[in-house]
Structures are given as structure tokens and as C-alpha cells.
Amino acid sequence: MPQLAYVDGRITRLAEARVHVEDRGLQFADSLYEVAAILNGRLLDWPQHLARLRRGLAALFIDFDMSDAALTLQAQRLVAANGQTEGLLYLQLSRGSARRDHPFPVAVRPTLIMTVRRFDFAQRVDQQQTGVSVITVNDMRWGRVDLKTTGLLPNVLAKQDARAAGAFEAWLLSPDAIVREGGSTNAWIVRQGRIITHPLSANILPGITRDTLIRLARAAQIPVDERPFTLAEALAADEALLTSTTAPLLPVVRIDGQAIGTGAPGPIATRLAALVWDEIARQTGWRRP
Ligand code: PDD
Fold it and tell me: Relative to the CA of 207, which of 51, 88, 249, 260 has its CA 20 to 30 Å away?
């Protein structure tokens, strides 16, 4: 089955899908995106992804007139057309295409593109057994990373540093060594039975998985502190972990080469991961192998 993409109302072969060379997403990263998990053919946490997209559109004054219901229908249509039961939906919405000029063009129509690809979530279950390592780098991003824009060059460079170091992720540090988040994941530590993650602010993305984990942890009587923590505190933590749509929860067992806790996935991360998989199963019916 050929891979199919959605571009501005039409489903076409991925290899033939095109946007205009003067699309503002391309020229200015004047665009927002979402990545949603497809499990058992269903979109996980879809209403939350839509809500985050809408917040971004409002903040950037992008006038997009498609309703949530219509957008959902198009997304589901693309997932079905691709025959994908386990994968990722990528959605990108730019301000549109117009002659290059920095201020907003008048009467421009946003460009909506969506793609679907296979993604093996079972590999995450394996990685959960061993845990992953992270490195740290300075956060070089702009002041509104709570908006999920495609201006991801600092993230790209950080993730490439991680890959070069053989690590899964790069944690991004503020000038005073506070761990903000990862290049494409939210960051957490565990201390004395409490889980700690950076509070929502303009300096982190409000991760959907982050939100889910806070809810699940509290329901399971595991206390959650949304407060800043430093690299020094992370290195001395009992456990560490990361979350994202594509992770969904992975224990972090090394930071900058230093073992965290025992250097193996700890009991809290393991318990939280089970809660996250249970929630995925509840929503989608997908069961880990
Ligand atoms: N990344 N922080 C950053 C900087 C991210 O890019 C992401 C998601 C997250 C986790 O958010 P969520 O739980 O909503 O996936 C945190 C996506 C998956 C990506 O860029 O591929």
C-alpha cells in the first residue's frame, strides 16, 4: 500500500505531496505542529492535541476555519487510507503561502498537511526494561517554546548531540542549570517517592503525556511536584524518567554518563510506566506484547 499524505484538503501519494515554495512554514517556521500516536487504529489523546493546537493558533493569530470535527474526520480518513494501525500522525498547520514579507500577509489561507507513518511502540516496552541515557546541553531556544511551532533547529542540534553521544535524549538546561525538558520529551526526577517535573511556563512544551502522567500518578497516590529542579538535583535523584507521545514513558538511568540511583530502572518509573500503558489500553485497546 503506498504511503499517503493529506495536503490542503486532498489525499495524495506521500512521494507526490507538495507545498508551495513560499509557504511561511518553510520560510519562517511560521507554523504549528502536533504528533499523535495511532494505536489499534485509534488516535491517542486526540482532543488534547486539538486543544493544544487551538491554543497555538490563537497565540499566533493564525485564522484557521476548519472545525475540530472536520479536522478529526480528515485525520481519521488519512489514518484509515494508510491502513495504519500502529504509528504516528504528523499534523502541520502554517499561516499559509504568500510573497515573502515578515509581517502577516492579508487574506492568506493556512496550509494544513498531515502524514502518517508506522511506529513500533513495542520497542519502547523493551527500552523500558533497560532504561535510557540522556546528556545535557544549554537550551538555545526562543522564549515561547510552550507553543508547538516547527522552529525546531535548537531541538534538532540537541538531539543530534545526543545521538552522537550514544544517548536517547538531550536535556535542555537554563542558564542557571535548571532542567527544562528534553529535545522532544518532558523531563522528570523521583526523590523520596515524589515525582518532580518543571512547572508549565513559556520555557517548556505542555506535553500531553506529561499531563496524563500527572493525572495518573495523583490518582495512584504518588505525589507530584511541578517545580524547577537543577541538574545537580537530578544527578542525586533516586530515579529519573522522560515522557512523550513517542516514548511514552522511559526510565532515565544515566545523565551525562553518571548513573542515577542504582543505574537501573527504579520501582516508581516502572510503576508509572505500567499506569501509562494501562491508560493507553483503556483508550485504544492496544496491549503491549
Ligand atoms: N515531541 N517537549 C518537547 C520539546 C517536545 O517536542 C515534545 C513532543 C514533548 C512531549 O509532548 P507530548 O507528550 O505532547 O508528545 C515535550 C513530539 C513527539 C515530536 O516533536 O516529535
Answer: 260
209 ligand 1 Cβ < 6 A = yes
The span from the CA of 153 to the CA of 140, in Å, is: 9
- Tell me the CATH architecture of domain 4-119: 2-Layer Sandwich (3.30)
Residues with a catalytic annotation lie at: 148
- Residue span(s) of the chain under CATH 3.20.10.10 come to 124-284
Nearest Cα residue to 134 out of 2, 276, 255: 255
The DSSP bridge partners found for residue 7 are: 10, 113
- Cross-strand partners of 92: 33, 113
Residue nearest to atom 8 of ligand 1 (CA): 184
- Amino acid at the residue 191: R
CA of residue 228 to ligand 1 center, whole Å = 19
Distance CA 265, CA 159 (A): 22
Which residue type is seen at 81?
Answer: A
Q: Using the atom order of ligand 1, give the atom closest to the CA of residue 34.
A: 17
| Ligand 1 center–CA 80 separation, angstroms | 24
Q: Cβ distance 199 to 210 under 8 Å?
A: no
Ligand 1 mean position, distance from CA 107 (Å):
31
User: In the chain, which segments carry CATH 3.30.470.10?
Assistant: 4-119
Rounded CA-CA distance 144/159 in Å is 19
The confidence score (pLDDT) of residue 272 equals: 98
Q: Which cell goes with 69?
A: 470535527
203 in contact with ligand 1, CB cutoff 6 A: no
Architecture in CATH of 124-284:
Alpha-Beta Barrel (3.20)
Which has the closest alpha carbon to 30: 90, 101, 107, 89?
Answer: 101
Site to substitute for ligand 1 among 48, 91, 185, 200, most atoms within 8 A of C-beta: 185
Query: pTM for this one?
Result: 0.97
